[in-house]
Amino acid sequence: MNILETLQNSNMLPDIYRKMTREEMELRVLELKARYGKKLFIPGHHYQKDEVIQFADAIGDSLKLAQISAENTEAEFIVFCGVHFMAETADILTSNHQKVFLPDMRAGCSMADMADIYQTERAWVRLQEIFGDTILPLTYVNSTAAIKAFVGTFGGATVTSSNAESMVKWAFSQKERILFLPDQHLGRNTAVNLGVCQDEMAVWDPNNEILEYSGDPLKIKVILWKGHCSVHENFTVRNIADIRSRNPEMKIIVHPECRREVVELSDEAGSTSFIIDMIEKAESGSSWAIGTEMNLVSRLIKNHPDKNIISLNPHMCPCLTMNRIDLPHLVWCLESLESGKNHNIIEVSKDIALNAKMALEKMLNI
User: Fold this and answer.
1) Could you tell me which of 294, 334, 267 has the C-alpha nearest to residue 46?
2) Which fold has domain 112-229?
């Protein structure tokens, strides 16, 4: 058996969990949660399935959950129901006595994977050749620990979809230009909201290692990494046109990871927390088309039966990688704690964690 096969087999769900009924698995989770008590903490991201989120001790976005995990010092085992970069952030912020687990190691993030550290280091060298020491790097928290560490090393910071505008403002007070990783759409939408013209933005293509821009490069203020969210990029102008034609009174609210033209045509745009808050505060009987992940939209529909809520894209599927965290994997992960096997531990190396924490703390301090 080669190394790849060994790694694949070590993370392969045992057949016993495929054969358990949902009721058996739910009872087992409740039993293990009761047994471990405060030693076990299960954070669940907003995009998780209902079968998993029902057992979450806290529900929120990735940074909030990592912070809550760190504050919960009694918890020795953090079983993070989200994706890989989220569990990495939790490991960076938690104490040495706490261990972070991801129920399924295949639960990654396509956006985070669009900026690997080797591409980023090569891009930085090339951009320094073009622009000199005039660039400050910023990275969306939806990025790997290595990218966060890179940003921290060069004096930059992380950003969230909630605080992106304030962080970009801060970055411009430090340097003439910014490099925004890894989501070009959040970067573009944020910059436009702050008054930066689109002809002052360029896109760095990491695969071809070229700067996509026509004109005088000295006019560039924002360099956008060519990455995107595979879910939010699937909301289109056509989706909005269909809603407007069928139900002109319906409000459209989208996440800023959507394309610029979609955000421009929507009534509201904001972070996951912003979307949830808007729906909760909306009048009974109001109508909403929401452009974000389908598990969350379905939950909002369920939780607000007094409102007419639909997905902006009627053919949208849940986030495929987020959906890898399911009830069988959760049970398997919890039972591994009991057996002492402790598979699927997320451990960020000390040097990367140190610099990544610098980028995170700079954002939190600002």
Assistant:
1) 294
2) Rossmann fold (3.40.50)
Question: Mapped to the 3 state alphabet, what secondary structure does 262-330 carry?
Answer: HHHHCCEECCHHHHHHHHHHCCCCCEEEEECCHHHHHHHHHHCCCCEEEECCCCCCCCCCHHHCCHHHH
Strands, sheet with 99-101, edge to edge from the N-terminal-most edge strand: 40-41, 77-79, 99-101, 345-346
Residues 259-295 have pLDDT tens digits of: 999 999 999 999 999 999 999 999 999 999 999 999 9
Specify which residues 158 forms β-bridges with. Answer: 139
Phi first, then psi: what are they for 42, rounded to 5°? -115, 100
CA distance 56 to 44: 5
Residue range 210-234, pLDDT digits in tens: 999 998 999 999 999 999 999 999 9
Q: What are the sequence ranges of the domains in the chain?
A: 3-107+322-353, 112-229, 232-311
Q: 152: helix, coil or strand?
A: helix
Residues in contact with 182: Cβ distance below 8 Å, sequence separation at least 6, in sequence order: 111, 112, 114, 115, 139, 140, 142, 143, 147, 225, 227
Asked whether the beta carbons of 156 and 359 are under 8 A apart, the reply is yes
Choices 1.10.3880.10, 3.40.50.10800, 1.20.1540.10, 2.60.120.260: CATH for 232-311: 3.40.50.10800
Pick the CATH number of 3-107+322-353 from 3.40.50.10800, 3.40.47.10, 3.20.20.140, 3.40.50.150: 3.40.50.10800
The segments of the chain whose pLDDT lies below 50 read 1-9
**Angstrom distances, CA of residue 145 to CA of 21, 87, 102, 357:** 37, 10, 15, 9
Burial class (CB in 10 A: 0-12, 13-18, 19+), 37: exposed
Query: What kind and span of H or E run contains 169?
Result: helix 164-174
Match 């969210």 to its residue by tokens: 229
Angle at Cα 226 formed by Cα 225 and Cα 231, nearest 5°?
A: 115
